[in-house]
Design brief:
Largest sheet: 5 strands, mixed
Structural class: alpha+beta
Helix content: 25-40%
Order of helices and strands: EEEHHEEEHEH
Number of domains: 1
Strand order of the largest sheet: 3-4-5-6-7
CATH superfamily: Gcn5-related N-acetyltransferase (GNAT)
Number of strands: 7
Distance between the termini: 42 Å
Strand content: 15-25%
Length: about 170
């Protein structure tokens, strides 16, 4: 079958086709257990250092005297779902969801994707995973997205809100 050569505007035989090369990435997600607190600690501190304006807490609050195993275990225990996303086998992002409030709404919080993993589907997968897990654990709940410190959806440090704008959260 002839293929249109866009550059020249001419038709050529199928043998002239150039292969399309796409980078295939594997995104894995796992839910953290208390034993995973060192992984959560490393990623959470990286997130707070890299994008401090995107969070309601600060790196100072999560380091120093508070930087203890008990502190990190309490955080994992107090928030209903804590996920790590790995890109090609390397931890590349975090996201959490709260238990439903009195009105039956869960909140997507603490989402962060490492700079080297941005634009590679990690953020979208984080949102999909939170929707799926919230629906499984808390049937009939609504989900909201927490955007901290007055950040707008167009701010670069709030990737979750940009994802939501591109792909509305629905079930």
């Amino acid at each position: 079958m002839p293929v249109r050569n866009r550059a020249a505007g001419a038709r050529s035989a199928g043998a002239d086709r150039r292969p399309i090369i796409r980078r295939v990435t594997a995104i894995e997600t796992w839910e953290l257990t208390p034993d995973d607190w060192p992984v959560w600690r490393k990623l959470r501190q990286s997130a707070l250092a890299e994008a401090p304006e995107a969070f309601g807490s600060t790196l100072v609050e999560w380091t120093g005297e508070r930087d203890t195993e008990q502190w990190w275990l309490a955080r994992l225990r107090d928030v209903a779902v804590n996920l790590v996303l790995a890109l090609d086998g390397e931890p590349a992002g975090i996201v959490s969801i709260t238990a439903p409030d009195a009105g039956g709404t869960v909140e997507l919080i603490s989402m962060w994707v490492a700079p080297e993993a941005r634009g590679r589907g990690v953020g979208g997968e984080a949102v999909r995973q939170t929707i799926t897990r919230a629906a499984q654990r808390f049937p009939n709940c609504a989900m909201t997205l927490s955007v901290e410190n007055g950040q707008s959806p167009r701010d670069r440090a709030v990737p979750a809100s940009r994802i939501r704008r591109r792909r509305p959260v629905t079930r």
